[in-house]
Amino acid sequence: MTTILVTGGTGTLGRLVTERLRADGHEVRVLSRHSRPHGVDLREGGPGLDAAVAGVDTVVHCASTPRGGDEQAAANLIAAARRSGVRHLLYISIVGVDRVPFGYYRAKLAVEEQVARSGLGWTVLRATQFHDLLVQVFQALAKVPVMVLPAGVSDQPVEVAEVADRLAELAAGAPAGRVDDLAGPEVRTLESLARAFLEASGRRCAVLNVPLWGAAYRSFRAGGHLAPERAVGKGTFEAYLATRIRRR
């Protein structure tokens, strides 16, 4: 079996990828800012990053933040991977990063391009948004009596465990370039998803759809972040809510 480094290995996705890979018999190193022995801030790099990558066959790059710095983090990781002779760099991205002019999406697309130009064997998988993210958003919006949603926007959430399974499969294989997207089983309006969340959590909250403005909103409204032709995920939003949300 191979030695695999998972960046962001303590996060929502990275933790599950780590579990899958270890269950399959791989030696797995976890890199994050607070993990030990590989507590590294990828945006800063340094000797700790070189030590984490040394002797690694494959890197699964899950570390990411909408607060900025992904491109610098990728540059540092790629440089360390080159020095160490990493065979395979696998990156998880988001469906629609090339169609939606949203700041975080642009950064993810830039990292995809860095990976493709890295000179390493590489694979990029794009997935739609996780159920977990929608729930975090709805929980925040439901703190006031009226939940305000962007009018006309739909989503296609996917179960994070299914994305982890696919990444573990890809990590064990050869570099494959840009592979088929992984999207959830249903395209749903944000309002229908929000009402499902409110029902499952027992919250009482009005829902108001409000038109917004800007190129990013128009792209989301047009479905640039969706992949209905790749609706291969199995887990529905209601199934997620049934196991993860406790009624108030």
TrEMBL record:
The name this protein carries in UniProt is Nucleotide-diphosphate-sugar epimerase
Stored Pfam families: NAD_binding_10
Q: Residues in domain NAD(P)-binding? A: 8-132
The record ties this protein, via InterPro entries, to:
Ergot_Alk_Oxidoreductase (IPR051604), NAD(P)-bd_dom (IPR016040), NAD(P)-bd_dom_sf (IPR036291)
- Its source organism is Streptomyces asoensis
Query: Lineage in the entry?
Result: Bacteria, Bacillati, Actinomycetota, Actinomycetes, Kitasatosporales
Q: Which domain of life is it from?
A: Bacteria
